[in-house]
Write a structure and sequence with these properties.
alpha/beta; five-stranded parallel beta sheet; 41% helix
Length: 188
């Protein structure tokens, strides 16, 4: 059954060529092959201010570009969030994007209308072995994002793909790109 899917590309560098960009493209190719409707949000391409005060959090309207992203997220049945692990968590730009897009209040953010019934797939790339991140570090930042943001606003179930050793062998990268195309085709 075709789904409405939004891919949120969270790599903060707008230059194509990072593995996160390749993963997003592979997922999109699969989604198109699976006849899913698709929208893409490239966080690095959006100009928005950081939220710095309680007053800004509570009363400042989001810029138009964030409003367009919010509309795409509301439209979606399935969210795919792709980002590299930086200093143990998501890059600051992606965190700032979610702070803008998911803040509470009438007509200001996603919390005004919870996203119940939607699903998500989080894809995190990293230099360390994924098993090490999962077992030694407990995938703490990923768990926090899942529990404190996505589940809090009603998104579940949440699938995750941890891709470690991204600077390693090209054959491993090809395997992951093929896997992303398959996830995209299935809308998973």
């Amino acid at each position: 059954m075709p789904k409405r899917i939004v891919i949120i590309q969270g790599h903060p560098d707008p230059k194509e060529g990072h593995f996160c960009h390749a993963l997003a493209s592979a997922y999109a190719q699969g989604a198109q092959a699976g006849k899913h409707e698709l929208k893409r949000i490239a966080v690095s391409q959006i100009d928005f201010p950081l939220l710095r005060t309680k007053e800004g959090w509570e009363s400042m309207l989001p810029p138009a570009a964030i409003g367009h992203a919010q509309e795409a997220i509301r439209w979606a049945e399935h969210l795919v969030v792709i980002y590299p692990l930086w200093l143990g968590g998501m890059p600051a730009l992606l965190k700032a994007f979610f702070e803008q897009a998911f803040r509470p209040g009438e007509q200001r953010g996603i919390f005004a209308k919870p996203l119940k019934g939607r699903t998500a797939h989080i894809v995190v790339t990293m230099g360390m072995p994924a098993l090490f991140y999962r077992w030694y570090f407990g995938a703490h930042s990923l768990r926090s994002f899942e529990r404190n943001v996505l589940r809090f606003i009603g998104i579940k179930p949440i699938r995750e793909s941890l891709i470690g050793m991204v600077e390693g062998k090209a054959s491993r990268r090809q395997k992951w790109l093929a896997q992303m195309r398959l996830f995209g085709e299935r809308g998973a």
